[in-house]
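Changelog-adjacent note: as of this version, every example in the card shows the full chain rather than a window. The one below runs 449 residues end to end.
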Amino acid sequence: MSVHSTLAQLWARADRPAVRAFLLSITALTAALLLALYSGAAAELGQLGLASTSALAALVIAGWVAVTLVPVLAKRTPLRWIGYKMEYRISREGWIYFAGIILVALAALNTGNNLLFLILSSLVAIVLMSGILSSITLSGIEMRLLLPEHIFAGQPVRAVVELENAKLTLPSFSLRVEAARTKVSSAVAMLETPVYFPYLPKNDRVQQVVPMLFPRRGVYRQEAFRIVTRFPFGFLQKARHLNLKTEALVYPSVEPTEEYLDILPGLQGALESLVKGRGQDLYALRDYLPTDSARHVHWKASARLGSLMVREFTREDESRILLVLDPHLSAAESSGLASGVATRNDRFERAVTICASLAWHFYERNFSLQFRSAGVETALAHADQIIFAILRHLALAQPLPPDPKQALMTDLAASPDLFKIIVTSQPHGSIPAPVWSSSYVVFLDDPPC
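Full-length structure tokens:
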């Protein structure tokens, strides 16, 4: 049944025109061979004319096959596996084995013993067989690396490494997948721990789940991977490169940090102070005004205090936040970065991390959120609709030199209707006074303001 199943798969995946061309070429070459044999027999019998005609017909048929059918078959023949670029490395066991071959060869040459020559030929045959079997094991293998859609810095994720064996008749054994180090790749390999596949069935695919950890935000790129095998004897380690360009966008961490937890109470107090309005929860009591409705009078408090007191409620439908990341550095930081003193601005990274944590905080509470930065602005929407757009920008954000015109802050001053949370790595005094009236500014050098 397995033979019939394999034949059925081969026929289903077969190239019908190529099969017809192959059968036609075999038939034509058989006819040419018969004509050539007949020509030789006719020449021995002295029938030179018939022999010449048969030989010419055989040459014509062979030439026709070479010109018309052979190119068609060559284009359709899957020779891509033969052209794989292989890397070879002799293992420690292999060096010991080759040393033994040299000793046996020297003994056979010195003594002329046929048994030693027989043993020597067997040892060399094992090496050749090892190279052939390892090449067959690596041929027809394709790889895929499946990463999660959303990845956060410092948070372990589960990636999937998948190997597919396209060979219809032969399985593969003892395969190891690892990241290929190249000159243009990043210093941190995406696949730090090799993944081992002991057995890969024929015409099948196998997956393994691999834990990964990306320490920093940004884009991680892996240009190539290697599939390595030491099958069958371990004398040779043979590897094949796969140019599988893989890219992962890593968001900033949204885990609450100590700095974020210090900022959060003051931020919540600022929010509560600016959200009084029509709602169900009591916000505060104040003196009665002639324009107030009588149904808002708090009678118990009025009786206790001897004057009319009116209830104010929290506003439930106006939880709208404008989150702002100021990417401009101070003059001192900008000069240090330009001179190459620091390749990574820690203050800016802290600002990005706090901004990401705040965005995630508002996302979990379903606030209406808008995000702005230099050259970037999202529409005001529910946080769950734009949270990943914000995180994508924060993953790629880079510090900018100081802006003398303060264009971002000028635009913020023109939007007093939204409560603004500004996260900046600049020192105090960098925020214009008109922005303060409707903003909560997070500085990174002092306690939150």
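Structural remarks: The CA atoms of residues 129 and 290 lie 101 Å apart.
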